[in-house]
Amino acid sequence: MPDADELVANALAAVRGTDVRQAERQLDHLMVGTGAADGTTAVDAALLRRLVRGLGRLWPRGWQPVDVDRITSRRLDARSAQLVRDAMAVQRREQAEPVPAWWDEQLHELAAEVRWDDDRGVLAGWSARVGLDRADALRAAVDILALVESLPPIAVLRPPPGTTGAATARPAGTGRSGSPMLDRVRALLAKAESTTFPAEAEALTGKAQELIARHSIDEALLAAGSERGDLPGGVRLGTDAPYAGAKALLVQEVAAANRCEAVWSDDLGFATVLGWPADLVAVELLYTSLLVQATAAMLRGRAERRPGAGRRTRVWDESFLNAFALRIGERLRATTEAADRAAAETAGPERLLPVLAARGEAVRERLDTLFPGVTRHRLSVRDAEGWSSGTSAADRASLDVGGGRSPRQVRGRPDPR
């Protein structure tokens, strides 16, 4: 009989192929095990070992725990993501030092923690926890392994564990800071999400953007007086279906309003945002909130449509969300520009403007370094009514932020849908 590692390799090769019967035969062999008394346990251990090795190879290739969790949930399912979290907890014990604090924070947020006494029982414990019999658990584990080993390299946004700079890497985007300003922003956005009055929601969002813009200027001036040679960082924000392209556009618009650059990887289901730490925090907070607000506005808009217009709901929704994103982006940028003008009057344009220009150039250089072959996706509108409704939904606030710029293009590949 083949040993456990060979059985796993055979099953993986068969699953990657096109012969369904061969794949089922190899999965049957996994069920039988090695023929030894502990043959099934040995198979479980071999699967876990290979999955842990596969995860370890992803970290130097740009992947972070939250990225792997997101794509596993997207391409497989939530139960599969739970096994990946268990494997990440095992892999964490094997990681070379130094391990940055943000890495452990991601694992903690994912609840990727050791919950067993013996690694040989990880697969069995997971299958019992998610309600899978052994055959389905083995099939799912092999599919997970095939996914993890097929993931391509992506941009390395922060030094992974065991590499130079990992111990001193500063936080990138994180909305969990104890900053009083961020607490005020979160409170404003929470109110904006909960109100049933569109004008109030957008006024609250505008106020949040004003606070964020002021904070960004303060951070820029503070950093200009220090000796640190930091580079802009980055975060990845999910843009899953439905309407992935509209979500990517919203990321792009929020990023542009907060001195950041965004690149959409539609095949992987996320947009990468590059910028300075305080600005990345702003983008995360605003994008999350605005996505909730846009969805609520879209649902209200559906109810207001004229009779007989419901046959093109998907096209209408997409046009609505695209228009909402573009108009909100214009308003947010205008708020930032107003904050810049006010700050320049206080600090002096000769002091502030060169600082902001230098930071913007550093972000663009980071973009060119990490994404040298970026392309642009031109926005198309297929429902005029949806576009008009989305623009109106983003215009209802009384906040006067005129002077918006022309619509922006979204970097990335066109959505095949």
UniProtKB/TrEMBL annotation:
It comes from Micromonospora acroterricola. Residues 181-219 form the DUF2786 domain. Residues 163-174 have a biased composition (Low complexity). Residues 159-179, 383-417 are annotated as: Disordered. InterPro entries: DUF2786. It comes from the Bacteria. This is DUF2786 domain-containing protein.
